[in-house]
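Thread: RNA polymerase sigma-70 factor, ECF subfamily, structure

OP (GT): Posting the sequence first so everyone is looking at the same thing. Length is 184 residues per the record. Can we get the structure tokens written out before standup tomorrow? I want them in the notebook alongside the other entries.
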Amino acid sequence: MDDVSIIELLQKRDQSAINELRQKYERLCTYIAGNVLSQHEDVEECVNSACYEIWDSIPPAKPNDLKSYLCSVVRNIAINRLEYNSAAKRDSRYTVSLDEISECVPADADDNITLSELADAISRFLRTQDELQRRIFVRRYTYGDSVAEIAKRFSLNESTVSTYLFRTRKKLKVFLKKEGYDYE
């Protein structure tokens, strides 16, 4: 079933939408949550919570890209779970990528900016980048892959991946400022 049909089912409050969502995206959600969390039970709980949050948020939300919306929800739930689990200590596996992206993306949108608007702006920016840089950026900041994993996936040196990420973050920061997201 395609994403538009799943969104329509969600808007009609048809519970089969959750089954369709799980069938299509459960492996991806598990992968994303698994890159943030180390405990299998936490990953499962995160995926379940994401499905509930999608059910609860659509409607009124009308995402243009269900996959991106779901990935964002899963990642945010997993990050919150990681913060809860580690409290004072930090798990550097994922927080390093969060620290990197925090340079150019506001952690908390203000009252005038919704997270979906910010996500749309980032998506528009990524569509302007060449495919390799876009894919590297998404692997790092959406899926939570390490620089080493990305380098291996794309047959690149780790330093090349780091450079691509740095340059893309720098361009994203400029883009977001032009879009009115100057939060500093």
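GT: Both are above now. Quick notes for whoever picks this up: The chain has a mean pLDDT of 83. Residues 151 and 161 are 6 Å apart (CA to CA).
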